[in-house]
Design brief:
By secondary structure, the protein is mainly α. Helix content is 72%, strand content 0%. The longest helix has 14 residues. The N terminus is likely disordered.
């Protein structure tokens, strides 16, 4: 075997002022050395950076190749053994990964990276109890980013429905990093789901008293007030955010949602117009959707047409125009724009759903069902988003209640806290005469809604009034 030294700077990219390694060139050289069975020295720091690079872009084969080469050079360097364990976890070879980590632990019991990787392996195997134990060991031995560890701990506690410790963990995240937006968001969600909103309001009020410009705390307390249907209090919180940052998107959006909840559509329209230039064209599209909800189809159509004239390839505008013509029962023009949309994106699910709705409205049932089967294949059955909502709505509209129940139920494991999902599931069960299941689904829907009954119904209507759904709940109780 030959041995030669590669200077550290040889693999820096000269065009970037020696700030980035040329990872591809380094990989090519290592591949050549492996193919020729050469033993060539590289700086370990270079190798570590190169492995991390390929890990970050999910090129695990390349990361594995370089790491194995590094282990030939540095047989006693635990850094590369830890990377090997990480790669084994990615490959789901948990037993071998844990074995390596146990061996390293004997040599370096204070290395927190060992326990973080063990936690990762246990989480991948859906063993949150064991992961929690290893995360605590990592914290005991000090970590570079304790906030991230507490965030992972909170996730583990949530999976065990241990809301008390999940709340403690997210509070610790915020204590360490006051700007951790995700921690504020999930902590707010947990306060709601655990029916602990009063404790949440008290906690965020204390944070605001410590710093009246804490935007995250103001947004969180606003959401809790919304859940308690204290809408004026929520609006006051969001207005305080806007005094700190007059262009804060979330605060503006949350205000709009409240006005929708209390059916103050004049205020909704006013805010969309006020911030139109700032958030154009998104707010203009949302204004058009609001006009659709209010039955002001001609005004919605005018907005979509103007957006389409500005950009002939704006799919949102094309879908909007097609939907408006459908609502006006002008199926010929609706199909014209649907076809135009298909030319831009032939597999656009929202257009397919609208096409199926037109076929159903025209009584072309066989064609509608054929298209429904095609649409079903487009869904991943993981996240219940807007298209899935519209499709389930269509199935209920077509009185395909059993199929709607099957479709909606397939999302429960992956999107278990989605209020809109349970709302539609309740409607499907009710119309299918399965009243107990309908009542249970309504209870879940209301439990998981962050905004209380009124907004919940406002955002999930299926061409009925709020009173209709209250009647369903009462009927379900009786039956």
């Amino acid at each position: 075997m030959s041995k030669s030294y590669i200077p550290f700077n040889d693999f820096f990219n000269e065009d970037d002022d020696d700030s980035f390694l040329d990872y591809d060139a380094m990989l090519t050289q290592i591949e050549e050395h492996v193919a020729n069975d050469n033993f060539v020295y590289f700086d370990p720091e270079e190798l570590t950076q190169c492995i991390d690079f390929f890990l970050n872009i999910d090129e695990f084969d390349n990361a594995e190749l370089i790491n194995e080469y590094a282990l030939r050079l540095f047989k006693d360097d635990t850094t590369f053994f830890l990377l090997k364990a990480e790669l084994l976890i990615i490959r789901k070879n948990f037993e071998q990964a844990i074995s390596i980590l146990d061996s390293i632990e004997q040599l370096e019991p204070y290395n927190s990276r060992i326990y973080i990787l063990k936690s990762s392996a246990f989480l991948e195997q859906d063993l949150p109890d064991k992961a929690i134990s290893e995360f605590h060991r990592a914290l005991y031995n000090e970590v570079d980013d304790p906030s991230a560890i507490y965030d992972e701990l909170a996730y583990c506690y949530l999976s065990l429905k241990n809301y008390k410790d999940a709340i403690k963990s997210y509070k610790k995240c915020i204590e360490i990093d006051n700007d951790n937006v995700d921690a504020y968001f999930y902590l707010t969600e947990i306060f709601i789901k655990s029916e602990n909103t009063s404790d949440g309001i008290f906690y965020f009020e204390n944070l605001i008293n410590l710093n009246y410009q804490n935007v995250n705390a103001l947004l969180s307390i606003g959401k809790l007030f919304e859940h308690e249907m204290l809408y004026q209090n929520a609006l006051n919180a969001y207005n305080k955010v806007l005094k700190i940052d007059e262009e804060h998107f979330d605060a503006i959006s949350f205000k709009i949602n409240i006005y929708k909840t209390i059916s103050d559509y004049e205020s909704v329209i006013r805010l969309y117009n006020k911030y139109n230039e700032l958030f154009y064209p998104f707010f203009k599209e949302e204004l058009a959707k609001t006009y659709e909800e209010l039955g002001r189809i001609d005004e919605a159509l005018e907005i979509y047409t103007n957006l389409h004239n500005e950009d002939q390839e704006d799919l949102n505008a094309i879908v909007g125009i097609a939907n408006c013509y459908f609502l006006l029962e002008n199926f010929v023009k609706s199909e014209k724009f649907i076809n135009k949309g298909f030319k831009l994106f032939e597999d656009y699910t929202e257009l397919k759903i609208l096409k199926a709705r037109i076929l159903f409205s025209k009584g072309e049932m066989q064609e509608a069902f054929i298209l429904i089967e095609r649409i079903m294949k487009n869904f991943s059955m993981s996240i219940f988003s807007e298209n899935e909502f519209k499709f389930a709505e269509l199935l209920i509209e077509m009185k395909q209640y059993h199929r709607a129940i099957e479709f909606l139920s397939s999302f429960i494991n992956s999107d278990a806290f989605n209020a809109r999902l349970y709302f539609l599931l309740a409607a499907a069960h009710y119309n299918n005469f399965s009243y107990q299941e309908a009542y249970n689904a309504f209870e879940n829907a209301i439990s998981f809604s962050c905004y209380g009954y009124s907004d919940f119904f406002n955002n999930c209507l299926i061409a009925h009034t709020d009173d209709y759904f209250y009647d369903i709940i009462e009927n379900c109780k009786k039956k």
